[in-house]
Amino acid sequence: MKGAIMEQSIELFANKGFKETSIQDIMDVLNVTKGTFYYYYKSKEEVLMDIQYQYINRLLDSQEKIIHDEETSYQEKLHEIIFKLLNDIEKEGLRAKVFFREMRHLTNEHLNQIMEKRDQFKENIQLVVEEGIKKGEFRSDLPPNIVTFGILGMANWSYFWFKPEGPIPDVEVAKIFYKMLLEGIEKKE
Amino acid sequence: MKGAIMEQSIELFANKGFKETSIQDIMDVLNVTKGTFYYYYKSKEEVLMDIQYQYINRLLDSQEKIIHDEETSYQEKLHEIIFKLLNDIEKEGLRAKVFFREMRHLTNEHLNQIMEKRDQFKENIQLVVEEGIKKGEFRSDLPPNIVTFGILGMANWSYFWFKPEGPIPDVEVAKIFYKMLLEGIEKKE
Amino acid sequence: MKGAIMEQSIELFANKGFKETSIQDIMDVLNVTKGTFYYYYKSKEEVLMDIQYQYINRLLDSQEKIIHDEETSYQEKLHEIIFKLLNDIEKEGLRAKVFFREMRHLTNEHLNQIMEKRDQFKENIQLVVEEGIKKGEFRSDLPPNIVTFGILGMANWSYFWFKPEGPIPDVEVAKIFYKMLLEGIEKKE
Amino acid sequence: MKGAIMEQSIELFANKGFKETSIQDIMDVLNVTKGTFYYYYKSKEEVLMDIQYQYINRLLDSQEKIIHDEETSYQEKLHEIIFKLLNDIEKEGLRAKVFFREMRHLTNEHLNQIMEKRDQFKENIQLVVEEGIKKGEFRSDLPPNIVTFGILGMANWSYFWFKPEGPIPDVEVAKIFYKMLLEGIEKKE
DNA sequence: AATGAATGAGCTTTCATTCAT
DNA sequence: AATGAATGAAAGCTCATTCAT
């Protein structure tokens, strides 16, 4: 039941928003009464918190695996990170939506922890960029900080438009983004 | 007064969210009573609607000016569009925040119109990309649709992190993003 | 209306208790809707607070007047204080009930202030006792502190049993209590 | 377990109030689950009822012993009754608090019985006063009824201020009260 | 003897909105 | 143009109680 409540919450938070979703809404779908909610969670915010932690922890985990793979180049790591993000939308799209949009409804204490982890995620990408520059895989005349924000924006924004069931699959989009990033879109002779 | 209400609404919607801002909150700052609100606006949603239309219309206007400038290349147009978006954050950052985040609180009728305009904005960029390809300014082996989403993501995401008062000014960020996009981040030869 | 809400609140808090009285209960009697309550008071606790302050302030005021009357002896002052307390029950009985019984529902901040004032009330009586001892009006071999608690108990307890419409009027009860206190109940010679 | 539940209930009812104490609160301390409560008691009110009966019955018992002691004078009986009350606070203080403050939460049926016993307690003291008057131990010009309320108030009020661990022990306070009552506080030549 | 899950009624509070003045 | 009073619907949350296991 606890799991079911969370599943429903994600669904509803993603579609209607945290504030716009009432406990009633969540429990109606599960065909139990409102009171039951409070048997499993102390408050509405606690569900949100659980969702946020689960999401960012999983994301960081899979990211760390990619980064610490000794067999891959930094270019390959970047490619994989982008693919992973796109690929996630299929299974985790709703969670991601909730994560980015409803973050501000957390209490300060949790908000800070979550934001730290979110920043860590960005730092990890930046590390790949920086190491890649050192190893001569990426050009060195662009500030890694801004470059990273660019990459992050490209990938994250896809949550607003990418449809897994659309004509172009995640693998393809990731490949295109990777090419854009690496080679640029300028026509070369 | 009507203008003042809107100004305050933008400020508060941006900082606290649409749902989280009460009419009382808005009018408190203006030192008038809640009732006054309804002399100028029919409902809370109407203010939001006005904000959304104003924002997207201005954005589209300035975008169209850039696109239809006969004197500039498509590469230059792209650069300018990116710069314009970054530059906007300084003066229009709050509006932008409200635009992206609170869109869903519009009634269906207005939501559709707004989304159409938002899509138009994307179409315009895509047009620049497509024409640039035709004219040989951009490479032709990448789908303009996805490329455009990439560009849009890069630029729009800056609303989440770009601080106008930060160390790197909007001109610089725009230049870096432009270089990334055009030339790629790969180390050459 | 604000006054009416308070009047009703006193009535209901006294008869059913603070916790047991719902905002609904209060407003039902006034034939207005629950929402109206919050137009006049920020919270349920605020009404209680107002009641408590009003009560203790009035009580202290009238007490100070008695104490600082230069024309009366300390014995007379003691008599008057006791009478005043008994007399109050008629007009302020409900307030007194609420005061003693519902004090603990105040937030800490207010509770402290109220308790300070309540202690001041006791201190004032003790002062009369002490000064009376110095002036030779009261015997000096009993600790004023405990004596004061005794007096206070006698008088305050009457809130639990004294009925203004009963056979013995407040003047009489005060006189009897005063005699008991001054002369004792022992049969002399 | 049944005893443990009652012990905890007294503690919590005294400190937080009957309404303010949840079954959960009680069982949390005992490290068992809420459901267990209903194995031992039919309802929350039943515990309160048990507390009330236990308290008043014990009190009446010890009072009757004092009253029917053939060896003591009525003055001595009065002294003992007062001492007994003060002395009780140490071991039974919490019970007393609950008794006086939470009485109103009983259902009518039980409330009536409890109030009858409470009145009996007062009647018993009044009997001592009346018999003492007849025997010439107490003055006869004060109505026994009011005198009794005075004595009761003095003694009962100590629940609000008397601290067993304070500087003056129960024996002393009882003695002082007794002296006040018997001899009065007026300075004699 | 004890648990865990669920219920349902009730509570305080918030707030967009209406409207007579 | 603005105020002040009132409404009513809904929200988050608490909790005594029930009951199958």
From TrEMBL, chains A, B, C, D:
Recorded GO MF terms: DNA binding
Annotated Gene3D superfamilies: Homeodomain-like (1.10.10.60), Tetracycline Repressor, domain 2 (1.10.357.10)
Pfam families: TetR_C_24, TetR_N
Residues covered by the HTH tetR-type domain: 1-59
DNA-binding region(s) in UniProt: 22-41
Keywords in alphabetical order: DNA-binding, Repressor
Name of the protein in question: AcrR family transcriptional regulator
Species the sequence originates in: Oikeobacillus pervagus
